[in-house]
Design goal:
Organism: Gemmatimonas groenlandica
Distance between the termini: 29 Å
Mean pLDDT: 90
Low-confidence stretches: 317-322
Keywords: ATP-binding, FAD, Flavoprotein, FMN, Kinase, Multifunctional enzyme, Nucleotide-binding, Nucleotidyltransferase, Transferase
Strand content: 25-35%
Oligomer: single chain
Radius of gyration: 22 Å
CATH class of the largest domain: Alpha Beta
Protein name: Riboflavin biosynthesis protein
Shape: elongated
Order of helices and strands: EEHEHHEHHEHEHHEHEEEEEH
EC number: 2.7.1.26, 2.7.7.2
Catalytic activity: riboflavin + ATP = FMN + ADP + H(+); FMN + ATP + H(+) = FAD + diphosphate
CATH superfamily of the largest domain: HUPs
Length: 322
């Protein structure tokens, strides 16, 4: 399990230095996992600690807020992924206007060398750093040669369709409701985490009680409104279910909600933390002519969700996601 340090000066790094990677790591996707695995392996080979240096908030929120993308992983979600990666430490740097103003050489000297004693640096092929991201791979390799630390540039990891995996491509897939493509890039289903809150009990009246999720940060990327087949991770274990994301036009409710009906379970989860893994999109949100029409549609949604989840489980046990 990784240790998280918000004050990286306190990292217990010895005289031999550390093996480091630097980045935003939004999504902690398959490409990121390749970097993290190589980081941990090189650290073990050289008997040095491995350190992930990341930032909070996303740098674009400071440098160019209008261009800041919605996030695949909020801060706590990202740290959870790092904790499973096998690296020694995660150092979270507050991304401030001062840090944004550092030239590439200043960032290398003041941050990577002085604070983290970098001995080996691993970066992706498209890595950029320093003010305006002007510190490209060539600049970084030149600085490594002059400062005495190694620089390893890692090639991209490709999705089954041959495209390089990136946070941008995964965001596009989620916005298009293509959860299969998103999962192929992430190496896991896309998820929404939060706390169960009390709703208005309409689901119970319909025969489909729901868990209402406290809306996550507005910075979290959500897929299009609609009904989804999901797996729900709860304190009592995982359950299958179906989720309605969006308004409830049949009741004249235009607010965007996250409501999940859990199959074959009847626990009281109010106040509990849960994670909803979005497995497949079932249909769009639409209005129905009364309660009975809605109830009949919910029955069809349940059948479709159960069938979809069973198919996905069979595909998982028979071979890799492609």
């Amino acid at each position: 399990m990784s240790s998280v340090w918000s004050d990286p000066v306190g990292l217990p790094i010895g005289d031999s230095g550390a093996v480091i990677t630097v980045g935003t790591f939004d999504g902690v996707h398959r490409g990121h996992h390749d970097v993290l695995a190589r980081l941990a392996a090189l650290a073990a080979e050289t008997d040095r600690p491995s350190v992930v240096v990341t930032f909070e908030p996303h740098p674009l929120e400071v440098v160019r807020p209008s261009a800041a993308p919605p996030l695949l992983t909020l801060h706590d979600e990202k740290l959870e992924m790092f904790a499973q990666s096998g690296v020694s430490y995660v150092a979270v740097l507050p991304f401030t206007p001062t840090l944004a103003s550092y030239e590439a050489e200043q960032f290398v000297d003041a941050v990577l060398r002085e604070r983290f004693r970098v001995a080996e640096l691993l970066v992706g092929h498209d890595h950029g750093f320093g003010r305006g991201r002007l510190g490209d791979i060539d600049v970084l390799q030149a600085l490594g040669a002059s400062r005495g630390f190694g620089v390893t540039v890692l090639p991209p990891v490709h999705a089954p369709d041959g495209q390089a995996i990136s946070s941008t491509a995964i965001r596009t897939a989620i916005l298009e409701g293509d959860l299969r493509a998103a999962a192929a890039g992430l190496g896991r289903p896309y998820s929404i985490a939060g706390t169960v809150i009390r709703g208005d009990q309409r689901g119970r009246l319909l025969g489909y009680p729901t868990l209402n999720l406290q809306p996550p940060s507005t910075r979290k990327l959500l897929p299009p409104d609609g009904v989804y087949a999901v797996r729900v991770q709860t304190p009592q274990g995982p359950f299958s279910g179906m989720l309605n994301l969006g308004p409830r036009p049949t009741f004249g409710d235009a607010s965007r909600r996250i409501e999940t009906h859990v199959f074959d379970a009847a626990h009281d989860w109010y106040g509990a933390p849960i994670r909803i893994d979005l497995m497949a999109r079932i249909r769009d949100t639409r209005s129905f002519d009364g309660i009975e029409a809605l109830r009949a549609q919910l029955a069809r949604d349940e059948s479709a969700a159960r069938e979809t989840l069973q198919g996905l489980a069979t595909a998982t046990t028979s071979g890799p996601l492609s």
